[in-house]
Design a protein that fits this description.
Blueprint lengths: L4 H17 L10 H26 L4 H4 L13 H16 L2 H12 L4 H8 L3 H20 L2
Helix pairs in contact: 1-2, 2-6, 5-6, 5-7, 6-7
């Protein structure tokens, strides 16, 4: 969702801290996993809105400027793969948030369409359509390469 592992980890930590502070409001009868996922998605959305506002006002930080950090141990052998991955991440980041959320939950996080629909509060058909549109946009971008 955010384009870099450290920023994703920060969003997860923020989400867990928020849930911990509000733990007295949790319903013990309901599973906590979907709730945690929703909280973390909301933290990601907040970060994306903040990033967009910073860009608008020209206040881009060093963290935002270098979103994708490569941690591969052998950069010589993986230069092409790194470049492709960087391009893919950049294109995923350019997707509208609704398409990106559905794509990340279903294709990257491995959740079912039903689970993603429940987490995002939409129908399964909406998730199916969003994932299809996201993949179609990515396919169109990468056909040019």
């Amino acid at each position: 969702m955010l384009g870099s592992q450290p920023q994703g980890e920060d969003a997860v930590q923020d989400g867990l801290a928020s849930v911990w502070v509000a733990r007295h409001r949790l319903d013990p009868e309901r599973p906590v996993g979907p709730y945690l996922t929703t909280v973390v998605l909301n933290k990601c959305r907040d970060r994306l809105r903040t990033r967009k506002a910073k860009r608008y006002f020209g206040l881009v930080s060093a963290d935002d400027a270098a979103l994708v950090a490569d941690e591969s141990p052998d950069p010589e052998n993986r230069a092409a793969a790194r470049q492709e991955l960087s391009l893919l991440r950049a294109e995923i980041e350019r997707l509208p948030v609704r398409l990106r959320e559905a794509l990340v939950l279903v294709s990257i996080d491995g959740r079912s369409q039903a689970e993603a629909a429940s987490l995002l509060g939409v129908s399964e058909k909406a998730i199916e359509t969003r994932v299809y549109r996201a993949r179609q946009r990515l396919r169109e971008k990468f056909e040019k390469f």
